[in-house]
Structure formats: C-alpha cells, structure tokens
C-alpha cells in the first residue's frame, strides 16, 4: 500500500470515527440536545425563539366543521367516566394505555391509501452547522407505513417520573426539527400535562429564528373540551392527508 492510499484510508477512518462519536454524543464540537432533556434555556441559546400571544392564530384549526356523532359523544363520555378519578395520578404509560390509546384508536390516523399513520417513540434527528437536535418523539403523525418519513404533527406528554420534563421545550425542539427537515415555515403540535391539552403553532420567521403560539387550555375531563380536542385532531388528520394527496399530484 503506497503512502497516498494509506493517508486517504486513515482520513476516511478518522471521519467515520468522528461521525460515530457525534451520533453517540461523544467528543463533538457541535452541541447535541436530546428532545427528552432540552430546556427553554437551551433552546434560547441555540436559536432565536419567542412566544407570540394571538389566540386568533388557531382559528383555522378550532373553527373547523367536523361533526361528532351521538355514538362518538357517548364514547367520549364513557372514556371520561373511566379516567377522570385517576388521570391526575397517571404516569406516562398509564395515560397512554388508559386514555390516549382509546382516543387515538377512535380517530384512526392510519391511511394505507395515502401511506400515512401515527408513530410512537419515533426517532428524529435534525443537524446543522451549529447544533444537533435528536431523540424520540412521543407521538408523531408522518408519511410512511413501516418507517416514519416526513413528519407533520407532534404530541408531547409530560413525564411525572422525570424532573426536567416539562413538555413545551421538548415539543418546540421537535417542531423546529420538522420545519427544517421539511423545508417548511409552519408546523403544529400539542402537549399534554395531566388532563390539560395545549395546541401549539410554530412559525419560522428567519434563519434560526422562530415564533410560537400556545392555545388556551383544553381540559380532557370535560366533555365539551374533549369533543373539541377530538375534532381538532380529526381536522389535523384530514388536513395532512389532503396535503399528502396534493403533493403526490405534483
């Protein structure tokens, strides 16, 4: 082996070793932030992000024309009766099994025709020249059937067993990642703390610059609020499917 070939081989090995260290979060010159551990202070250190107060921003979601049948209303009332006494004590897995699984199953996010479904603990990575955001999204609506492909909507849950797990910065980090990976300017999501839901809209306003909006509270133990949560999620599902269909025609 001549010296030139040997030199190139060693460079390739060093490059691969560096990439492996970065994936593991070791010895990297670029800071790596995990969705599950990121804080508001971390986000503000790496991007320009500001809360904007404007409740009308959610009108296109909340003022939807989804109609709930009597059968669905009865289903939601029964679900509330089951979870209301204990929901404030639920840990993450309790909330998923006893409440979210039933609600999401009723909505049925899966569309084989449009190659779209809900994913759980799905891996997501966004990297630029300044930082890396990575981890597993609690809930993600995305194109793809076996593996998630293009992310469209996220729900982040509060984890009682983790002290630094308030869901807002985690959700915002996921939304930023999706906006950049999709090369889009707007991304929607929601986060859950016990029975309370808040919907979130993130907008990209410049390079590494974002504004976000947080909705008023929805209490999922109140039937009118739970019906609205249900309708909002159905609206978002339909909106994403329509977007996928329009993209496939291009």
Brief summary of the model shown:
Helix content is 42%, strand content 26%.
Count of helical regions: 7
* Residues in β-strands, percent: 25-35%
Give the biggest sheet.
9 strands, mixed
**Cα radius of gyration in angstroms:** 21 Å
Q: Give the helix/strand class.
A: alpha/beta
List unreliable stretches of 5+ residues.
none
**Mean residue pLDDT:** 90
User: Using DSSP, what is the number of strands?
Assistant: 9
- What order do the SSEs take from the amino end to the carboxyl end, as H and E? HEHEHHHEEEHEEEEH
Inertia-based shape: elongated
Distance between the termini: 51 Å
User: How many distinct domains?
Assistant: 1
Helix content: 40-55%
Overall description:
This protein is of the alpha/beta class. It has one domain (31-249). Helix content is 42%, strand content 26%. Strands 1, 2, 3, 4, 5, 6, 7, 8 and 9 form a nine-stranded mixed sheet that branches. The chain is elongated. The protein starts with a helix and ends with a helix. The model has no long low-confidence stretch (mean pLDDT 90).
Helix-strand blueprint:
Elements: H1 3-24, E1 32-34, H2 40-46, E2 48-51, H3 59-62, H4 70-83, H5 92-107, E3 116-127, E4 132-143, E5 151-157, H6 167-182, E6 186-193, E7 196-206, E8 209-214, E9 218-219, H7 223-249
Parallel strand pairs: 1-4, 2-8, 5-6
Antiparallel strand pairs: 3-4, 4-5, 6-7, 7-8, 7-9
Key descriptive features of the protein:
about 250 residues, alpha/beta, 9-stranded mixed β-sheet, 7 helices
């Amino acid at each position: 082996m001549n010296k030139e070939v040997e030199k190139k081989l060693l460079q390739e090995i060093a490059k691969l070793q560096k990439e492996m260290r970065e994936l593991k979060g070791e010895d990297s010159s670029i800071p790596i932030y995990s969705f599950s551990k990121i804080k508001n202070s971390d986000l503000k250190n790496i991007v320009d992000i500001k809360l904007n107060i404007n409740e009308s921003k959610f009108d296109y979601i909340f003022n939807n024309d989804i109609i709930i049948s009597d059968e669905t209303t009865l289903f939601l009332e029964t679900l509330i009766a089951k979870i209301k006494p204990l929901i404030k004590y639920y840990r993450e897995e309790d909330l998923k099994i006893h409440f979210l699984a039933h609600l999401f199953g009723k909505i049925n996010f899966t569309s084989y025709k449009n190659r779209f479904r809900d994913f759980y603990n799905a891996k997501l990575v966004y990297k630029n020249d300044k930082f890396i955001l990575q981890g597993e999204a609690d809930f993600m609506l995305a194109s793809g059937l076996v593996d998630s492909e293009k992310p469209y909507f996220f729900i982040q849950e509060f984890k009682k067993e983790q002290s630094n797990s308030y869901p807002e910065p985690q959700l915002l980090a996921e939304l930023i990642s999706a906006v950049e990976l999709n090369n889009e300017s707007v991304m929607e999501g929601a986060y859950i703390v016990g029975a309370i839901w808040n919907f979130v809209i993130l907008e990209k306003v410049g390079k590494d610059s974002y504004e976000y909006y947080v909705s008023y509270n929805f209490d999922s133990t109140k039937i009118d609020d739970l019906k609205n949560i249900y309708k909002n999620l159905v609206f978002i599902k339909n909106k994403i499917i329509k977007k996928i269909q329009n993209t496939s025609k291009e």
